[in-house]
Amino acid sequence: MLAIARFAVLYVPLHIWNGNFQPKRAAIAADIQSADITNDQMQTGILVGRYARQLSKRVPFTANCLPQALAVKWYLGTRNIETVIRIGARTSRSAKPFDLHAWLLLGNTCLTGAQERASYAQFGQVNSADL
Questions:
Q1: Cβ atoms 90, 81 nearer than 8 A
Q2: Which of 40, 56, 78, 89 keeps 20 to 30 A from 97, CA to CA?
């Protein structure tokens, strides 16, 4: 799945897969709450996130934050575990013009991209219809 996610990031137009950034169910303005997540779902999410991070270091292509987040989101979706991808920009002034980062949240738990997340400011929520 990591290779498919990397391919999607590189070659598939954003409007085709941009629905991956929103939870499937209609959530008004809130993310999926931690109270809605079972212990088994949380353990599965943490384990799959760890596997994706470890695997990304061993594949013969660059599997940075967005392919990791997409792959884990897609896999957990097959298990009916809803997650949310967040994207942000680096907050320091010395950053490259488009220094972006993606991370995957299951409730309040960051499954991928947690280490770098602190130095990025999250963009506002974007609805698929707005793109």
A1: no
A2: 56
Q: Which residue has the tokens 């070659």?
A: 11
Give the pLDDT band (50/70/90) at residue 22: low
In this predicted model, what pLDDT tens digit does every residue of 33-78 receive, in sequence order?
666 889 999 999 999 999 988 888 888 887 788 888 989 999 999 9
List Cα–Cα distances, 119 to 6, 16, 42, 52, in angstroms.
23, 29, 25, 21
Tell me how far apart the alpha carbons of residues 14 and 89 are, in angstroms, rounded to a whole number. Answer: 18
pLDDT single digits (tens) 109-124: 999 988 887 778 787 6
- Alpha carbon 78 to chain centroid, angstroms: 15
> How far apart, in Å, are the Cα atoms of 49 and each of 52, 75, 76?
5, 10, 10
**How far apart, in whole angstroms, are the C-alpha atoms of residue 127 and residue 130?**
5
